[in-house]
Design brief:
Blueprint (H helix, E strand, L loop, with lengths): L5 E2 L7 E5 L5 E4 L14 E2 L20 E5 L3 E5 L2 E5 L3 E3 L1 H8 L3 H11 L6 H20 L2 E3 L3
Antiparallel strand pairs: 1-4, 2-3, 2-7, 5-8, 5-9, 6-7
Helix pairs in contact: 1-2, 2-3
Length: about 150
């Protein structure tokens, strides 16, 4: 499992990727459509006093609870492996859909709220990626653990 990291510059949690060829771990900013990061990530261990809380499902600020899964969620992204770290932070609205085990409502919420504007083909591509991730999340049996 990868160690959690945040960006020392913007205090956003970073996503870990392991490159297939070199097996090196690389930390990247979240892939929010419409958000251009103005700096390269500077990975440091999370500092709770500085870490900016973000909902892992819709990217809104102010998570109110967190979920852990029984199984690890790992997805392939081109030539890298993306391991999704735990716990998964959730805002109030996303937490309701998770508690009710409503993946399709959670997907719709994320598509409406995640930053960026997309044309129709890009919107379908985003829906496909989000659906795969969220369905894996629900298959991994999430349980609420709080913040």
């Amino acid at each position: 499992m990868f160690e959690p990291r945040m960006c020392d510059t913007c205090c956003i949690p970073l996503d870990p990727f392991m490159l297939f060829i070199s097996r090196e771990v690389e930390y990247r900013h979240p892939a929010w459509v419409g958000v251009e990061w103005d700096h390269v990530p500077v990975p440091v261990p999370p500092d709770p006093g500085r870490l900016r809380g973000v909902c892992d499902f819709c990217s809104s600020d102010h998570p109110v609870t967190a979920f852990e899964t029984e199984k690890m969620i790992v997805m392939f992204d081109g030539l890298s492996i993306h391991e999704f770290s735990e716990p998964w932070s959730a805002c109030r609205r996303c937490a309701v859909h998770i508690r009710r085990r409503s993946p399709h409502l959670l997907i719709e919420r994320a598509l409406q709220v995640i930053p960026g504007t997309l044309n129709q083909p890009d919107r379908w591509a985003r829906r496909t990626r989000i659906k795969a991730l969220f369905m894996n999340f629900f298959k991994a049996k999430p349980e609420e653990v709080g913040l």
